Amino acid sequence: MAKQDKITLETEVNTSELACVLGITGRRVRQLAEDGVLEKVSTGCFLLCKSVQAFIAGANQKSKPTKTDEDRAEAEVSLKKAKAIKAVLEAKELQGKMHRSEDVEAFTGDLIIFMRERLSSLPGRVAVDVAEVDNPAKVAEILRSEVYKIMEEMSHYKYDPGKYAERVRERQNWESSMSNDEEE
Predict the structure, then answer these.
(1) Residue 47 parent element (H or E)
(2) What dihedral do alpha carbons 49, 40, 27, 37 form, nearest 10°?
(3) 130-158 pLDDT, tens per residue?
(4) Cβ atoms within 10 A of the Cβ of 94, count?
(5) What is the pTM of this model?
(6) Interior angle at CA 121, CA 120 and CA 127, nearest 5
(7) What residues form DSSP beta bridges with 45?
């Protein structure tokens, strides 16, 4: 602060001088200015009397929420909502009411392998029977009969909740061991 005999309504101080008068840090003075509690008259300069009065008024308002506080509160609410949604989804997964896409992909792959095995065995199963028949209609009937048998087998292919639960437990062990490795 420049040497003056008296402090007037026009007395200007810099950030560090104002911080000293208010008993806070220079960083806090800048935050209060950004939040609109304190008003700068020029770069890094404040009117001393007006700033002290604004600071006291701000303190008397019982910590009026600042933009930073509102942003922080909004972020916390958003984070809590995300955690709640995640918990609900994990509970549904553990109950077998919802499946992860990678699990659906794995079970679909298992079904495709099952179908491929059955269809691949078809030529071997019908080759001798078809070789003995000269009538194309009879060949078609033999093939149709075998295809129906395969379709019947495939209709009995069922989703096994036990296998799914086992897959979920396996994945959770992997995830928990991965998170333990990350913590170390």
Answers:
(1) strand 45-47
(2) 70
(3) 888 899 999 999 999 999 988 888 888 77
(4) 13
(5) 0.42
(6) 115
(7) 14, 42
3-state secondary structure (DSSP) of residue 41: strand
Rounded CA-CA distance 5/148 in Å is: 107
SS3 assignment, position 13: strand
Q: What is the rounded end-to-end Cα distance, in angstroms, of the chain?
A: 52
Q: For residue 184, what pLDDT is reported?
A: 54
Whether 122 contacts 147, CB under 8 Å: yes
**What's the rounded Cα separation, in Å, for the pair 177 and 175?**
5
Sign of torsion, CA 39 44 47 49?
positive
Q: Which residue has the tokens 């298992």?
A: 110
What three-state secondary structure class fits 99?
coil
Burial of 99 from C-beta contacts in 10 A (0-12 / 13-18 / 19+): middle
Q: Which amino acid is it at 110? A: D
Q: Give how far Cα 98 sits from Cα of 22, 82, 93, 153, Å.
A: 58, 18, 5, 27
Sign of CA dihedral 28, 29, 30, 36: positive
